[in-house]
Design brief:
It contains 13 helices and 10 strands. By secondary structure, the protein is an alpha/beta fold. It has 3 domains: about 90 residues, no CATH class; about 100 residues, Rossmann fold, CATH 3.40.50; about 80 residues. The strands form 4 sheets. The chain has a 4-stranded parallel sheet with strand order 8-7-9-10. Strands 1-2 form a two-stranded antiparallel ribbon. A two-stranded parallel ribbon has the order 3-4. Helix 9 crosses helix 10. It is globular and about 85 Å long.
Length: about 325
Amino acid sequence: MGIAVQDVVALLDVRGATFAGGAIAMHDGDQVPLKNLGSGSIRLLVAGLQKEVGQSSISIIDEVEFGLEPYRILRLLDALGAKTDDQTQQVFMTTHSPIVLRELSSSQLSILRTQRGRTIKDGTARLVTTTTNVVVPLGSEEIAQKTLRVCAEAFLAPSVIVCEGKTEIGLIRGIDLFNQDNGKRSVLSHGCHWADGGGSSMVERSLLFARMGYRTGLFMDSDVVIDPEKYSSLAVAGVTIFRWPDSYSTESVIFQSASLDLFPALLNIACDWRCRDSVDTRIRNVSQQRYDLNTCETASADDMRMVLGQCAGDGKWYKDIEPAETLRTSL
């Protein structure tokens, strides 16, 4: 279990008030009481003893990650049988840790939901509020396992906004930080976290979160045609869609919406991420030599918007969380 304990013996605990059974405690080879170990080490030790000599087929652990570093969490989960198919052992545990979620299989996870309703009692007009606890399994489908690996943090929030890709995640994070800097509430303070839709997987991941009872939104481009049946399934599942109008990509919207005086700052972020030569070459090629980087930095004009939007998308100028998040600094 990773606990350095050797030659364990039972000795008198000098802090015992009486010579009762509680005065005898397990000590290590240096005669230090094992209960002096940290909370995480004690948890590992108890789990090891349970695994070695325990006869119980059921274990219950609250906040399994408490007091443990990530590598020790993995060791504990292994010891509890997370990677085995032992039909004689059941482990019930709660967690607030994405590390725990990523280490487990989707088929091992369930979410407990409380559903509230109102019913008519005894045939009268008197309404009675009822509550029902429902266990919703995550399931063993491939989409569930992949979503768990990539979006573990989102499973720990009551609301989820699935972003088409890393650009949209970075933009949401940047907007969140911008709002905080201006005295507004964070998205996180509202109990909402973002999840990576992985491009082509965004609809399936949104439907998965909705099926699990999360308040779910989908933030996506509008430059890719999606089957109308998928839109219908999202509507039925209660997923709110946030989508750019007029077939715009996120990169196109950035340059269509920004004021001209912000273009130098936007281009500077692209240069930091892709280098000046790459950005300059892209602008020259897309504009058919009408513009270059220097022109766009010093003499911005409205007719550059379409060119720079296309360049940003084709050149992946902000196609990651960090550069998209940094866009807030240009506002």
